[in-house]
Each structure stands twice: as C-alpha cells, then as structure tokens.
Amino acid sequence: MLIRRHREWEIPESHATPETIFLNRRALIGSAAGLAAGSLIGGGARAASEAALYPAPRNDSYVLDRPVTAERFSGDYNNFYEFGMSKTVLPAANALKTSPWTLKIDGLVEKPFEIGVDDLIRKVGLEERLYRHRCVEAWSMAVPWTGFPLSKLVALAKPASGAKYIRFETFMDKAIAPGQRVFYYPWPYVEGLTMPEAGNDLAFVVTGVYGKPLPNQFGAPIRIAVPWKYGFKSAKSIVKVSFTADRPKTFWEGLQSSEYGFWANVNPAVPHPRWSQASERVLGSDQRVPTLIYNGYSEQVAGLYKGMEGERLFV
C-alpha cells in the first residue's frame, strides 16, 4: 500500500480552487495576451515570439494551501524601491525598458559571458509553479510564477569549486529610477544565496507570472523567487549574476543589518524588531493566517541549515 504523507503546507483537495475555474482563467489570459501585454507590461510590448511561450506548462509538483491571489491585488501592490517607496509602483516602473535585456555572468566561473534573456529562455525552457510569497512586512500572496530552476542557470555558468555564493545585482539607472537618486540607499540592489540554496529545487528564476511575461512592477524581465525566505531576498530586474567565494553584502543588510540579515528565512517565532511575524495578512483580504516556519517549505529546505545555530538565520 502506498501511504502519502501530506506536507505541512498542503490542504485537502476539496479546499482548493476548482481546476476548471483556474484553467478557464488561463485560457482567457492566453486569448487576450496581446491586450494584456499592452496594458500591463511596461517598457513596450514584448516580441511575439516571447509572448508565445506563455502560458508555460504547469509543474504539478508545486501546490498551494490557498487560492492563487487575484492579479488585480498582487499586480498593484509591489515593493520595488528603485521606483519609490509606494506600493503602487507601476506608473514609474513603466519607464524601465525591458527588451532587449542582457544578463552578465561572471566571477568564479569557467568563462564569464553575457546572454540575452530571450536566448537564455530558449536554452533552458519554461515551466509554471504555484508558490507562496511572504513579505517581511507580514503580508503574503500566492503566485503562479513562470520560469526555470535556478540550478539550470548555475549549470550553464559552470562555477568553479571555489564558488560558495551566488550574487544577484539589479539594474542601475538613476535617469529612470527615482528611488536610486536617494543617496542613503546602497544602490544598486544586491542579494545573494549560498550555492546549496541556489541548488535547491525551490529556488526559481522568474520570467513570467499569471500566464504571461513578467510585468515591470514584478521585476521584469528576470527576477528570483526564493519562497522559503522573506520577499526581499528575491531580487528583481537582474542584470548580473556573480559567483564568489565571499558572502555578498546585501542591500538591506548594508542599510540596516540589525533588522535585515543575509539569511532572511521565514520564522513566525522570530519577530522583526518593530513588528510580529507570527501571522500574515493575505493580500486582497483582511484575513490573517498563522505564518509557517520557512513559509511552509521546511520539509524541502530545513536541512540546508543544519549546524548553523550560531547564524542569524531568521532575520
């Protein structure tokens, strides 16, 4: 007899959003792709060849404990400090030209190189995954990201044995990004992961959402999703990926290390210095639900941190 043990973040199938509803919505998105691209994607329409890649096939290994957050909520509630401190960054983010876009791979790799995002997608392929997203500000959403495992990018880079960390750097352009003119922020935005974290199955490179290419306010054209960590670990609009022996000094860590550390794993028992992390507000409602350790993904990632009791893993 096959006995299936439910993961801590799963719920009975009867509680999930009916598949017919979600598939009908996906079909509507596909038929309206041209309209959606014009209304939601800043910086000009994406090439038809790119849009044809969406929606990508769903990877059913990744399921949710709640319905997918409606795009009308998540698409207009974004932290993207390059474009200001307001949650409504879409108008300002439209100034970012996202096509063509080149990604630089350097550091401790076999041979540094540059690659266009469209070429990268063609090399590695795309899939859709349903992920939870938890912000350190204690709000959350459920997102249908499209992209590919970060491990595929690591394999393409062919890092040297001395590479211990992977560093992500966001675009820098003060002319179009008003937030980057704020002198006390340590621009450009930098984030990082250890190589074992980058190799975990959950670590995901994102190029799309809701069945279409990534809109600017979500971090177009390429960002990271690390669902067991607070959202600020998921760098947006990345231009450079570097492999290094030294731990990167990340943006928020450099700005306020007492509140934002390198690891930033979700833990309801460890409060932010100015608010509790015990519960979260589900975006699009006033509902608060209990926060889960590692955002509900402890089965997949807790082993990454064995023997690190001396580290500030949850700040």
From TrEMBL:
Mo-molybdopterin binds at residues 78, 81-82, 135, 170, 223, 234-236. Keywords: Metal-binding, Molybdenum, Oxidoreductase, Signal. It catalyses: L-methionyl-[protein] + a quinone + H2O = L-methionyl-(R)-S-oxide-[protein] + a quinol; L-methionyl-[protein] + a quinone + H2O = L-methionyl-(S)-S-oxide-[protein] + a quinol. Its EC number is 1.8.5.-. It comes from the Bacteria. Its cofactor is Mo-molybdopterin. Residues 96-252 form the Oxidoreductase molybdopterin-binding domain. Binds 1 Mo-molybdopterin (Mo-MPT) cofactor per subunit. Part of the MsrPQ system that repairs oxidized periplasmic proteins containing methionine sulfoxide residues (Met-O), using respiratory chain electrons. Thus protects these proteins from oxidative-stress damage caused by reactive species of oxygen and chlorine generated by the host defense mechanisms. MsrPQ is essential for the maintenance of envelope integrity under bleach stress, rescuing a wide series of structurally unrelated periplasmic proteins from methionine oxidation. Belongs to the MsrP family. Heterodimer of a catalytic subunit (MsrP) and a heme-binding subunit (MsrQ). This is Protein-methionine-sulfoxide reductase catalytic subunit MsrP. It comes from Methylobacterium persicinum.
